[in-house]
Amino acid sequence: MIYTIDNIDQLKASIGEDTGIVSLVPSLTELLFDLGLDKQVIGITKFCIHPEKWFRTKTRVGGTKNAAIEKILALKPGLIIANKEENVKEQIELLSKDVDVLLTDINTITEALTSIQAIGGLLGRKEEADRIVAAFNAAVIKYTANNLIATDVCYLIWQNPWMTVGGDTYINDTLASGGFRNIFAGQKRYPVIEEDAFIALVKSGKPVFLLSSEPYPFRQKHIDAIQSYHPTAKVVLVDGEVFSWYGSKLLKLPSYISELRKSIQ
């Protein structure tokens, strides 16, 4: 059966200390590690690179978009943790016929914090989850977007074609938390920017271009390419994990944004 954060309490009766867990979500795999669930987690994806210890030792069950169904079922997990956006609907439905699935749907920081506490409570790690949330909230108190001058940004996730993020994404919310105003916030999901429109945008000299390290591995050569249209265009490489991973990676967001703002002022 498929469960969500809203009806997660219905799962508790079937979850115990010996419940085997397969995580199909890299950012939540990292959260499970930080919650102290080493023994319970028996399978992860090939993109679950954090922590490195798990990446080297845990059974890998394919990717986020091409889960190895038979390999997962052979592990006989009691719970699969998935995500509405990152995983394929048909694969999750197929797995749910044999294994309980917790299907997360996280598009804001608030939803991320709620999910951390819900997962912690479900898996007997409430105190650990509460500590992560409290640590994030304490860090946020040190700076707030309300005290920052809004900075227009274009956050790029892909090239050929150029792709950015819309206002209904988790990345948009993490940007906004640091006073970054996403110029594509009025669009949905992951808009494509046509080449002519992109060149015109660069030549306008207005937004700061944030080039994410994932899913596309932007490098210095891409900065050079953008600045060939406008030599003084402000272009910065950023850590995509900090902006898009919604588990315990959240703890790195406040300090990272603080340093990023200093670097582009």
From TrEMBL:
It comes from the Bacteria. The keyword Cell wall biogenesis/degradation does not apply. SUPFAM superfamilies: Helical backbone' metal receptor. Keywords: Receptor, Signal. This is Helical backbone metal receptor. Residues 20-265 form the Fe/B12 periplasmic-binding domain. It holds the Pfam family Peripla_BP_2.
